[in-house]
Each structure stands twice: as C-alpha cells, then as structure tokens.
Specification:
The protein is mostly helical. The protein contains 16 helices and no strands. Helix 1 runs parallel beside helix 8.
Length: about 375
C-alpha cells in the first residue's frame, strides 16, 4: 500500500531527526572518550601496580581489593581532586577493615551486614564530613561481610589490599596533577561550538521555511545540553581541585572566571532553545531573513569564541564581534512589520548579552552595546 506525500514527509522528517540526534550523541561520545583516554590509561597503570604490590611484595594470592580501591579512588576524569581521592581511599579502608573485624568476631549474615553498615558509617561520619568517605565505608563493609569467601592472605589481608590501592591512587594523583584548566577549556570550546552550530541551524531553518529544518534546529539545541552540563560540572570540580593542590592554587582565579563563563554559556543555550522553539511557527519574509543574518553573525562570533576558550586565549576579537552584533539587535529595525520577529529579537538580546559577558565583557559593557530602544 503506497503512502501519501504527507506520510512520506513525516517519515523523512522523523528519520532526519533521529539521524541528527545520533550524530550529536556520537560526536559527544568521541569528546568524552578523548577527554577520558589519558586518565583511564593512567588508572589502568595504577590498578596493575597496586595488584603487583599486594600480590608479589605482600604475598597475597588474590588481592582483589587493591585494584578495586585504586580504580574507585582515581576514576576516569582528569580533574582528580586530592580531597576526593583521600576521602574515597580512607572510606574504603575503613569499610574493609571494620568488615574484616566484624566478620571475624560475629560471622556473616543478614544481621551482621546491618551491624557493620551502622558501625562503619558512624565511624566515617565521626572522622570526617565527606559524603564519599561515609558512602564508601558503608559499601565496602557490606561487600566484606556479604562475600566472606574471598580471601587474600589471612588476618586483615583485604584491609591491607585496600590500603595498598588507596595509597597507590593517592600517590598517582599527587604525582600527575596536570593542568586543571585543560579539560574545562576543551569542554568549553566544544560546548560553545555546539551553541554556534545551533544558531546556524536556526538561521538556516528561518530562511528555508522548511518545518523539518526548524525542528532539526530545536533538536540540536536539546542534544547539545549534555555538553554544556559536563562543562559546568568539570569546571566546578576543577575549582575544588585548585583549592587543595599547590599547582592549582595559582589557577584558582582563572578557574572561577571559567565557572561563571560555563554558567553563562548554559544560560545562553537555554535562551537559544526558546528561540528555536518559537522560530518553528515563523513565516518567511525579509524581516525573518534579516533576523537569520543576525543569527549567522552571532554564530560566527561564537565559533571564534569557542576556539579562544579551548586555546585559553583572550577572546578580544570575538568580544568585539559580539558587541558589534549587539549594536544590530534592534526589534524595530529587524522586524518593522512583524511582531513575531520583534518578539524573537527581544529574546535574542538576552542571549547576546550573556555571550558578550562569556567573552569577557562586563555586564555594563554588554548592555550598553545593545541598540537603544
């Protein structure tokens, strides 16, 4: 049975949307792999080293908890907060040690698991306020009592293994602090590039008037959200690392600025998604074409800003381009006879101000650059 032209168009639109989302996820997946490859490789070395120490030097036949503890402490990100590594390592050691002691004193079972969780969690809370420390202490104590058959060398062998893994992880993290700005910069460049592409997609959809093109722009904006969320999360973690490491303290001011930049970038994308959603119902015409050109100019400046953020350079040229775009963002000039264009321009002015501040302009400079109304 043949399909009607309307059904064919619907199917084509859905296939295109699925393809766009898939490409966006693959692109962001590659970004995550590239960012995590070095830290994961280093964690693999630490895991092997901790197993080797516990097995060959301490003589434990199956030092399971040494590599497990090393991996839990280090994780897969480059921004290894020393406090976090210490919290996790101590928490694992406490949990394993108390689990070993309680399992030897009163055996294993449902009641014993509850007892060991209560004791280990309370001890961890007494020692430190860290959430990770308490969580790991409880988890590892449950594992020890719940799996008593796993033996590594008698006595407190499992506790010793956990301690070996924690020490190895802490030493690795201390000796390879790296530059805490590197990953936030890279993710910032990726996130702002996604924002620029979304602006280009919206402009393209405005010009063509094709509902599928306009839906694709909105889908791209939604699919780009994880990249900006990760930028904020990694930057926040890097700021925490900078507070406790000697190499990071000198970058604290820059990382704090970068944290605000990440917040502004995310806020801009939220505004741009509103524009993409409202642009779906726009008619075509000269006013819409003028708005599309403004979006293209904004996208060019955002692409340059993304390159500067990724490289850690002063985005002076991008800032001037964005301030220049702000001069053109006047609802009366862009949408002389179209209230929808005027409405979208008003919303866009907010995004332009946020982008100007992202590029280093002060709030006053960004607002003064806007075309007066």
């Amino acid at each position: 049975m043949s399909r009607s032209p309307g059904e064919d168009s619907f199917v084509t639109s859905k296939v295109r949307q699925m393809s766009l989302v898939a490409r966006s996820r693959v692109r962001q997946g590659r970004i995550r792999v590239r960012a995590g490859f070095g830290p994961i490789l280093l964690a693999g070395v630490a895991v092997s080293l901790s197993y080797w120490i516990a097995h060959l030097l301490l003589g434990h036949p199956s030092p399971f908890f040494a590599p497990v503890c090393a991996w839990i402490c280090l994780g897969f990100t480059a921004d290894r907060n020393m406090r976090r590594v210490a919290e996790v390592g101590i928490g694992v050691a406490i949990g394993v040690g108390l689990g070993e002691a309680i399992a030897k004193l009163i055996g294993a079972g449902a009641v014993q698991i509850g007892i060991v969780l209560v004791v280990s969690a309370l001890v961890a809370r007494f020692l430190d306020r860290g959430v990770l420390l308490t969580t790991q202490a409880g988890v590892q104590s449950i594992v020890i009592v719940g799996l008593p058959v796993v033996s590594t060398g008698g006595g407190f062998g499992r506790w010793t293994d956990a301690l070996v893994g924690a020490v190895v992880a802490f030493v690795v993290a201390a000796l390879t602090p790296g530059d805490p700005r590197r990953l936030p910069r890279r993710l910032g460049g990726d996130g702002l590039a996604e924002l620029a592409r979304t602006l280009e997609e919206i402009a393209h959809g405005m010009r063509t008037g094709d509902p599928a093109d306009r839906e694709a722009a909105l889908l791209r904006g939604r699919a780009s959200e994880p990249a900006l969320d990760e930028w904020q999360a990694v930057t926040k973690s890097a700021i925490g690392t900078a507070r406790v490491t000697a190499t990071g303290r000198r970058y604290r001011s820059e990382l704090t600025t970068m944290g605000r930049t990440a917040m502004l970038g995310d806020r801009t994308m939220r505004t741009v998604r509103v524009i993409a959603r409202r642009a779906i119902s726009l008619p075509t015409g000269p006013e819409v074409d003028r708005l599309a050109q403004l979006l293209d100019d904004l996208a060019k400046a955002t692409h340059l800003l993304a390159e500067n953020v990724a490289a850690g350079n002063d985005p002076a040229v991008a800032r001037e381009m964005l301030l220049s775009v702000a001069h053109e963002a006047h609802p009366g000039l862009l949408g002389t006879g179209d209230w929808q264009v005027q409405s979208l321009t008003l919303i866009l002015r907010s995004a332009i101000v946020d982008l100007c501040e992202t590029a280093g302009a002060t709030p006053g400079e960004a607002r003064e650059a806007l075309a007066p109304m």
